[in-house]
Design brief:
The chain has 275 residues and is α+β, with helices and mostly antiparallel strands. The chain has a domain of 120 residues. Helix 2 crosses helix 7 and helix 3 crosses helix 5. The longest helix is centred in the middle third of the chain and has 31 residues. The two termini are 22 Å apart.
Amino acid sequence: MTILPIPLRNSRSVVEYFKQGGKVEVPRPQECFFDQCRLKEPLRKNGSYARQVIYWGLFFLVQICRFRCKRCGRTASCPFGWLVPYRRFSAEVMSAGVEAYTAVKVSYRDLSADLSDLELADPGLDIRGDEFYAEVIDKYAAEQPVAHEHPPCRPAHTTVFNWADFICKRVEILLAQVQKELVQDKKRGKEMVLVPAECVVENPNSYKAATGKKRSRLDKSTFATLAARLWLGDSRLIWYRLRAYFLTKAESRKDVLTDTRVWLPITQTSELVIF
């Protein structure tokens, strides 16, 4: 099955999705993406399936549209752009976890607890008062996790570790791509962003790294956070904004949070969205 995300301009975030009442335009794929078929006709709608989403400790389900080629029978799934393929946590939560571990001294266990508490997020991210959110919760009440001693929708500390580790392993290529985008901005007449020397930036959690390579990668991830903040503007969701920039404006059109193969219609090519 091909993954074809809905463009971010149609629904930029979870908050916007609920403000839209869940009514998001899903562009119909205009051709088959299977290399051995490539039928130049719009795909037919082939039903939908429910996808679990965890957003700052809140659990809900969304319906993902699916389309099918009438000639080869291959299908294309069209999830929302604020979802990461094969991940239950929204891109906002994953980005917040990565950003926090690059910016403040914290353990993975404490950070996992923070990511399940909407009170610690920006007030503008709260969706609990939205009328459509109440409808969704009522509709899928039977699917809601049972609360025990710990919040039912918190990521495991190993999950948060995997998010940070994913970025660390790809941070060198990410920084090269950021540098390339800065050069492109200069060609467009924009003023170059001045960032401090990479060697003076240190990750507050790098002292816990077991190897020098991991320590260096953690420091570079903090440098990437600083560079993105100076480049895109100060924001608590800077890694989410960085992800959105690369998906919508950057030459690479890649996702910083996944290595899943998806189809990006902007470039008209199928590729691994990975740095």
